[in-house]
Amino acid sequence: MTNNDLVPELTNGMFEDFIKEGTVLIDFFAEWCMPCVMMAPVVDEMAEKFSGKIKVGKVNIEDNGEIAQKYGVRSIPHFMVFKDGEQIEEFIGAMSADDFEEKLSKFA
To answer: Which CATH architecture has domain 12-89?
Structure first.
């Protein structure tokens, strides 16, 4: 479905380590969520475009509900940007690649 090398799927044990350094985009998703499935290739594309500037990971809310709960994720797709472990931005819902890139470019 996606390129896991570029966008690793994070579990509870990996999440805090993954977000603690630098600028990180997290994609909260579920397999049954059609807008999430539609956003997957866009997220992969952004991971490539911002490689070296923004680290990208994803969290399956079905498998890792604790993380979703901790960050108040109620609707998906839900994207959060972290800087050195602190949440600095979030956006919810599917969007075009151009809109997504525009939102992310201010953090690169």
So the answer is: 3-Layer(aba) Sandwich (3.40)
